[in-house]
Automatic annotation (TrEMBL), chains A, B:
Name this polypeptide is given: Acetylornithine deacetylase/Succinyl-diaminopimelate desuccinylase
SUPFAM superfamilies from the UniProt entry: Bacterial exopeptidase dimerisation domain, Zn-dependent exopeptidases
Keyword terms, alphabetized: Hydrolase, Metal-binding, Protease
Domain of life: Bacteria
Any GO BP annotation: proteolysis
Keyword Metal-binding: yes
Residue span(s) of domain Peptidase M20 dimerisation: 199-357
Length: 464, 464
């Protein structure tokens, strides 16, 4: 029987070419202008599921963008793995900072990826990682090596909050029944340090708008006499964090889980080089909540970041104007046991309450999701760890991520199963940034490792 | 002899049509894309000066945009009036808020302007007001009524800081020799309350840039662990004003002239309706420096306003990003006895010093100018007051403006003469805003009043 490694060696060019074709489609869910491309990508995913060995695959309509569903049921008595991924991508802006166009994939060698990396929007997040699972299925079906049932649920709205996913889950609980959910949309520590993400932060994303005068004003004639919406917005946002970088929204920390000293000690053992971290993103210093380490600040503590801000004249040269309106997009990363809708309400109430006289303020909740923690003593985690041991020769490190995949806690609610986050991306892959890429080595390593998860999970599940 | 009023009655349609033609040209100095239009406007101004009776007129090249110079010298022994204005205009953004296109002038009736107002960018600031002087000259030459010499200096960079004007003044001091400078680029209190602007604020305009990581980062993976340039920029700008709305830049108020109780009392006598003021610009409340009235805050006190701010993702929908850079355009209005270059340096030093660890900050001075106060006991002011008395039947009110015309103090330095600011615009004309307009009545009233200034000034000057 051909090992995953050998199978991959024979087929890697084809795999890369197929992934490249998928990456060419600008499936940007945030922008309605790309609706046709999103639909085209869904069709390609469906085709690839059938080509990989699914008995059935379909593009399912939803109130929003389609969800692709595929399955191969070999025996109802065997366990079922449900693979989740997404075929939509982040907007590519700012485009002028890409060295090659975001939707013209090209393989380039880098220091971290001497075997080459595919540069394109979505290469890592999430098309590259999602596609590993499709190719892993292809390996298992073509070598008659599939130990259990498999279902695929690949959506098109992850980057905009998976707005239709709950609708889909609600209506398809039987269809989606499974014993474990597998997701590759996170990262590993490095190419020789596999990790399993055991925690995800929650998210609350809002848009705020401050309005002053009913039109832009001349800043000479009116400057000093009226509230300037931009100055006011700055004051309000600045007040949201104190000098210890703690968030000042009343009640924000009430439900935050404090990790035990032992857990924090264990986290501190994960390999982490602060100098390399700073050098890699070109910052002179880190900055965050007092009394927590960098890794802790980025995983087990909640945050508040302004993702975008604009108002007034932002073109070339000078314009002496007091803007009528100022805007910001603000998001908070949450931790257990925050309830994201509650936090959103707390934020909204607080922000609207601190608006000074002279302006009106509007807070528009956008989307969000709960934090999630996966138990490391379950067979799901064990199976993943054994798979990494097979292909990397060492145990995986349990890792709390700073990122959010809001639907993971939704899954547990509707489908009653745990999620395993086996990521093969690297922090340096620059997801959500210009020049996003995914290592060819990482892509192929994922395809190699995933079948071992199926093997071990089926063994452990059927024994138990 | 035909009075100005009668002459205007006969020629007003022609005057309006000529102004409309000039307003069609998008002479936006802030944007190099409009360079050809700026040059075209200069040519039209030159032609109009010759048509109005100038003996010579020329478009003078400068290191930047051209300055139009014209003159009619009738007798070197007579006084000389130098008219300054500008043919460049503010950018029209945001264009979608205009009810008619900014460069397609149209006359519409409004409540304040039942005789109609010309709606276009530059209608009031400054083409309409500048053109009053050209038509006033035409009246005086065609009715053989010009009592003294006249020179015109109409530049094309006022909206971007008049960068080439000092170069021009330095090289043409003899050519520009004059006894008084006349400018119409300010406003009057209302159509039945003429005013002469006796004070202008200074200006310091800077651009600031805060840089954090060397690329945009995923706000889940990095949120909480690194300084977010937008959050930081907000904090820094917020710190520039305290809870009394005083500017916190060290040394900022050291040279600020405090007006005497009597002067402040006199200012408070000017007609001003706070409810109307608030209603007119649609604000629930005014806001400004503690212990000063609205009029004082807008004229005799210095200010700090953010004119534009941007950073991160500002498009449709959500993007969970920590921006690499955040930017703002900030301007300060200054008062006697600020030195604008000194204030710019104070600001730059302070702003760069308050940058926290984790970011780098750059402050780029853009342009500026000194504040100016005109003496109300001189013959210049007297002549203007008498002219207003002739055409309005009442004295003008001396008014301290909040706006800046930085070159006025430059003029005094190079040409050794005072400037009289006779404005015919209204605050409601929305200069620098969408739907800028200029009342037909105001335009014609200016043409009517200006010749009386020439008459009285020549009388007073030759008698003294």
């Amino acid at each position: 029987m051909l090992s995953p490694k050998d199978y991959i060696e024979k087929n890697k060019d084809a795999f890369l070419n197929e992934l490249i074709e998928l990456l060419k489609i600008p499936s940007v869910s945030a922008d309605p202008a790309f609706k046709d491309d999103v639909n085209a990508a869904a069709k390609v995913v469906k085709k690839s599921l059938l080509a990989a060995g699914c008995d059935t695959a379909e593009v399912c309509e939803t109130p929003g963008l389609p969800i692709v569903y595929g399955e191969k049921i070999i025996d109802p008595k065997l366990p079922t793995v449900l693979v989740y991924g997404h075929y939509d991508v982040q907007p590519p802006d700012p485009i002028d900072l890409w060295t090659s166009p975001p939707f013209e994939p090209v393989i380039k060698k880098t220091d971290i990826h001497p075997e080459g990396a595919i540069f394109a929007r979505g290469a890592c997040d999430d098309k590259g990682q999602m596609f590993m699972h499709v190719k892993a299925l292809q390996y298992m079906t073509e070598t008659d090596n599939l130990p259990c049932n498999v279902k695929f649920m690949i959506e098109g709205e992850e980057e905009v909050g998976s707005v239709s996913l709950e609708w889909f889950l609600e209506r398809n609980q039987d269809k989606l029944e499974n014993d474990v959910i597998l997701i590759s949309d996170t990262g590993m520590i490095s190419k020789d340090t596999p990790s399993i993400t055991t925690g995800l932060r929650g998210l609350s994303y809002v848009e705020v708008e401050v309005t002053g005068p009913n039109r832009d004003l001349h800043s000479g004639l009116y400057g000093g006499a009226v509230a300037n919406p931009i100055n006011i917005l700055n004051k309000m946002i600045a007040s949201l964090q104190d000098e210890d970088n703690r968030i000042t929204v009343p009640g924000f920390y009430d439900k935050v889980e404090e990790l035990s000293k032992e857990e924090r000690q264990k986290m501190a053992e994960a390999p982490f080089d602060l100098d390399e971290y700073k050098e890699h993103i070109g910052i002179p210093d880190v900055r965050g909540e007092k009394a927590y380490s960098t890794l802790e600040r980025a995983s087990i503590r909640p945050t508040l970041d302004v993702n975008g801000i604009w108002g007034g004249y932002i073109g070339e040269g000078a314009k002496t104007v007091i803007a009528s309106k100022a805007y910001a997009k603000i998001s908070m990363r949450l931790v257990p046991n925050h309830n994201w809708e509650e936090i959103t309400e707390l934020f909204k109430k607080h922000f609207e309450s601190i608006a000074p006289a002279g302006v009106t303020v509007e807070v528009k909740p956008h989307h969000g999701g709960q934090a999630y923690v996966t138990p490391i003593d379950g067979i799901e985690y064990k199976a993943a760890d054994l798979a990494f041991k097979d292909t990397f020769g060492k145990d995986a490190i349990p890792l709390r991520s700073g990122g959010s995949i809001p639907i993971v806690s939704l899954f547990e609610g509707y489908l009653k199963s745990k999620t395993i986050l086996m990521g093969f991306g690297l922090n340096s892959d620059a997801i959500h940034s210009p020049n996003e890429h995914f290592g060819v080595w990482n892509f192929l390593k994922g395809i190699e490792t995933i079948p071992y998860f199926y093997k071990h999970f089926t063994d452990l599940k059927t024994k138990s």
